[in-house]
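Can anyone check this?
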Amino acid sequence: MKKTLFLGLLALAASPAFRVQAQQTFPLYTGTIPDSKPSQVQETSLTLANGGVRVSNVVQPNLTAFLPPAGTANGTAVIICPGGGYTRLSIDHEGYDVAKQLNEMGITAFVLKYRLPNDQTQPDKSIAPLLDAQQALRLVRRQAAKYNLNPERIGLMGFSAGGHLAAWAGTQFARPVGEKAGPESVRPAFLVLLYPVISFSDTLKHGGSRDNLLGKNPTPAQIRQYSNELQVTAQTPPTFLVHAQDDKTVPVNNSIVFYQACLRHGVSAELHLYPKGGHGFGLNNKTTKDVWTDRLRNWLDANGWLSK
């Protein structure tokens, strides 16, 4: 009996699904962090009753790498931006859990713990998240050889306010923010946007995200600049969007107007709308048997990002 159990465990350990490689966390910056100032603010982490983890007051941004089982990596990477209204990060179900799912597709995933807008820690809170997203793209490209990645196949995924950040990075890469930007491109190869905050217009905005990033009284010019549907060009990366029609937090029209902007500019885009699901469902929209990650796998495969 013991011998049979031992052999069974050996067989399980040898299976590809069991060979999950250890995660590696590393800082986004060496030395001084751009757009930062000394403060007494400290990062906090809250574990909810359901086991969810919420991170706030990020001072030291970093990336956590999730590597596919040995021999399955296809050279594509995705940097994941969790949501949380630019006030916290839902870093588990919109970060770590998603990274593990991408690993099953052979994708190397990086969860971005980006700085949230904060006047106490940042001279200009309106650019801090984008600085971190652009630095993450540079850093992953810089380390492409280490992770056996194709530097031209590094995409950006975002949920809710993280979707705003991903779309922001995907539409304004031609003008990198900050000084000493570095030579690497900050254009994502593709975008994956889940119930994203797209527009800061009065009719479509998620008020908390806009207030946290721009303050209570943004100028019309700021509202336009940070409304990503107005920044789409022919160079915007191919985009995959998912949203629920009954989302009461971020109106579904956020995804629709971005999709329409992609159509107007000839950008390849795929939009999946569910009648129900609300906001923040992460990997699992419990109102449907359809699994959006299956649709994502098909889209990635059709575009050649799952081939080795």
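Reply from J.R.: I decoded it. Confidence is low (pLDDT under 50) at residues 1-20.
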